[in-house]
Amino acid sequence: DGGITQSPKYLFRKEGQNVTLSCEQNLNHDAMYWYRQDPGQGLRLIYYSQIVNDFQKGDIAEGYSVSREKKESFPLTVTSAQKNPTAFYLCASSILDWDTQYFGPGTRLTVL
Amino acid sequence: ILNVEQSPQSLHVQEGDSTNFTCSFPSSNFYALHWYRWETAKSPEALFVMTLNGDEKKKGRISATLNTKEGYSYLYIKGSQPEDSATYLCAFYTGTASKLTFGTGTRLQVTL
After folding, report:
1. Which of A9, A20, A69, B40 sits most deeply, having the most CB atoms within 10 A of its CB?
2. Positive or negative: CA dihedral A5, A55, B39, A41
3. How confident is the model at residue A97 (pLDDT cuts 50, 70, 90)?
């Protein structure tokens, strides 16, 4: 079955530690995205990538980093510089950047 | 930063009621308008992607209309069922920004 996987589903980290969230897709999509959701807010774009080895900052990129070494993978690192990292993180992909986005199941990160 | 507004914020209807929500977006530089349904504990799922002024799309009991000149879209649900309970998100794409901007969603609860 084609789709997007994110792991783990729940993640706990101590303050000051970097943590990497995994996102893999087998849909052969060029574009991939990372969103963050906080209570009462819409999905906010962290980073996106339209092609391998290229990515752009979204609206809230500070304290995050990404890589896109393979078409199917777009890992997100939450660094210690991110002031409020506790949130729900969603990864998505699409064929074209304006077209339907397909979402993964999400990772809930809690920083203690 | 582009502003996408959805109303109402939440809605509670009884089974069999018909309902509708609004998504307002900037009317300039329009490229596409998306609607997603996000059920609890699941991933957001695309309902419609609309690109043309006057577009009307339908999927079962759910339909949507688009007015790009005045910057709004309506989502209609006819004869609501408990399985329609979800958060409905709209997202706006402008070619100049090359990314989706999401609204905060309308949370629908349908009771028997």
Report:
1. A20
2. positive
3. confident
Residues on chain A bordering chain B, Cβ-to-Cβ distance under 8 angstroms:
4, 33, 35, 40-45, 48, 50, 56, 58-59, 90, 97-106
Cα(A98)–Cα(B87) distance, rounded to whole angstroms?
A: 22
Residue in B45, B98, B102 nearest the CB of A43: B102
Residues in a beta bridge with B40: none
Q: Which residues make Cβ contacts (< 8 Å) with residue B45, sequence separation at least 6? A: A103, B36, B37, B38, B39
Hey, are the CB atoms on A97 and B103 less than 8 Å from each other?
no
The stretch B6-23 carries a mean pLDDT of 97
Q: Write down the pLDDT at residue A1.
A: 62
> How far apart are the C-alpha atoms of B46 and B29, rounded to whole Å?
22
- pLDDT exceeds 70 at position B1: no
Check residue B28 and give its pLDDT: 85
Residue whose token pair is 């209570």 = A39
Which amino acid makes up residue B9? Q
For residue B85, how many C-alpha atoms fall within 13 Å in the half-sphere facing its CB?
A: 12
Say whether B49 and A105 touch across the interface (CB within 8 A): no
Distance CA B35, CA B39 (A): 13
Q: Is the dihedral of CA B53, B85, A36, A77 positive or negative?
A: negative
pLDDT score for B99: 86
